[in-house]
Design brief:
By secondary structure, the chain is α/β, with parallel strands linked by helices. It has two domains: 199 residues, 3-Layer(aba) Sandwich (Rossmann fold); 154 residues, Rossmann fold (3-Layer(aba) Sandwich), CATH 3.40.50. Strands 8-7-9-10-11-13-14-15 form an eight-stranded mixed sheet, with helices on both faces. A seven-stranded mixed sheet has the order 2-3-1-4-5-6-12, sandwiched between helices. Helix 5 links the parallel strand 4 and strand 5. Helix 4 packs across helix 5, helix 6 packs across helix 7 and helix 8 runs parallel beside helix 10. The longest helix is centred in the N-terminal third of the chain and has 23 residues. The protein is globular and about 60 Å long. The N and C termini lie far apart (80 Å).
Length: 394
């Protein structure tokens, strides 16, 4: 009996040893915090890992673990993952758990996770550094006031959705269009911002805009029907989580009226949008954040003086299956610019997969340093941004 107990204790000690070592080592620990697993995140993450691997912070075998979303106790860095399971009420507990685990670097994906994490950590005397990605409205969400007017421990890269180009596609598809319909969830900052942008650019084109408000995904069919009853010619969905993920519910009603549905991301064609058009450089978004993290770990960048980066890009995608189902012919110029097409249930990607350019580690570090130097928050830049904010307030 004593022998069995002794063996059991030894096994328990061996199992617990790696966890204990992970807590005691000097490796920086990155906490990956997300609202939920998304297609855009899956494109951005390889950009981050490619940079960290190119900087020799992770090995090929460690990269395999990260590609599978598994925790890593690595030779140079540690990584663990937490997910809010699409429920914003889980985010506070997720952040508190992260802080309890002593993460050195917080990597947040999505506007709500970034917004809540920034609000919690700003009250700390010595908060961990925080990098964010795939955030569409950092300034209206209160994450920062401007690229350099921000919390000293926070920076990242945000998605600049080209709403003007997105809305312009409505007239390309239907030159005689009169009225656009859209849907807003007032509880979501990115939804409110998106609808304001759609409205602004549609009215600049001389179009009328009808807006339906929702409180949850269950409201989408009724909201769609109300817009159809108001005679909208097209539905243009913004970047809000509820309405973008709920496009199938929108389509179930829009089909009865023959109203085409556009979404503000190429990947919305996977949910059934006839045309998806918007920011499409999520890999580049990941590369930008990866460069920031690598430089921070290397001690060559001051996060408090590193501006929030902004990337501008548009990609167009078409779901020909939905178009056929709705009896819609997609305009030739939209088809000519498409980077992705779904037809016969098959997805065709018409662009090359992104990757890092080949260069030596020395060359890469020099290139990253030059890139980050462009993001430096100099006294002059800060003064200019403060003046711009003051003018906007006046």
């Amino acid at each position: 009996m004593y022998k069995r107990i002794l063996i059991g204790l030894l096994l328990a000690a061996l199992l617990l040893a790696p966890a204990a070592l992970a807590q005691d080592d000097d490796n920086p620990t990155i906490a990956f915090l997300r609202y939920r697993s998304t297609g855009t995140e899956d494109i951005a993450k390889p950009g981050i890992w490619d940079v960290l691997q190119a900087h020799e912070l992770i090995s090929p075998s460690e990269r395999e673990l990260l590609d599978e979303n598994l925790d890593l106790n690595g030779e140079h860095i540690n990584v663990f993952w937490l997910d809010a399971a699409s429920d914003v009420t889980n985010v506070n507990a997720m952040v508190e758990k992260t802080l309890d685990r002593g993460a050195d670097i917080l990597l947040t994906f999505s506007t709500p996770v970034t917004q809540i994490t920034a609000n919690i950590t700003k009250e700390m005397d010595d908060p961990p550094v925080m990098f964010f990605a795939i955030v569409s409205a950092p300034y209206s969400a209160g994450i920062a006031d401007s690229p350099c007017i921000k919390m000293s421990h926070v920076t990242g890269s945000h998605v600049t959705i080209p709403y003007e180009q997105y809305v312009a596609l409505s007239k390309v598809q239907q030159p005689d269009i009169q009225t656009i319909g859209t849907i807003v969830d007032p509880a979501q900052t990115q939804s409110v911002y998106g609808v304001s942008q759609i409205t602004e650019f549609a009215e600049a084109l001389g179009l009328n805009v009808e807006v339906a408000s929702i409180a949850s995904a269950a409201d989408l069919p009724q909201a769609t029907a109300s817009l159809a009853d108001k005679g909208v010619d097209m539905l243009m969905i913004g970047a809000g989580y509820t309405e973008s993920r709920g496009i199938p519910a929108v389509l179930s009603v829009a089909k009865d009226y023959g109203i085409p549905v556009f979404g503000v991301s190429p990947r919305m064609i996977h949910h059934g949008a006839v045309v998806g058009a918007g920011f499409d450089d999520f890999y580049g978004e990941g590369v930008t954040v990866g460069r920031m993290i690598a430089a921070h770990i290397d001690g060559t960048v001051d996060i408090s003086k590193t501006a929030i980066s902004s990337r501008v890009n548009i990609g167009v995608a078409v779901n020909l299956d939905t178009a056929e189902e709705f009896g819609i012919t997609v305009a030739d110029s939209i088809m000519d610019s498409a980077v992705m097409v779904i037809e016969g249930g098959e997805l065709s990607v018409l662009s090359e997969p992104p990757s890092l350019p080949e260069m030596s580690l020395e060359e890469r570090k020099a290139d990253d340093a030059a890139f980050l130097a462009e993001l430096e928050c100099t006294e002059e830049r800060i003064a200019e941004e403060q003046a711009t904010l003051g003018t906007a307030r006046d």
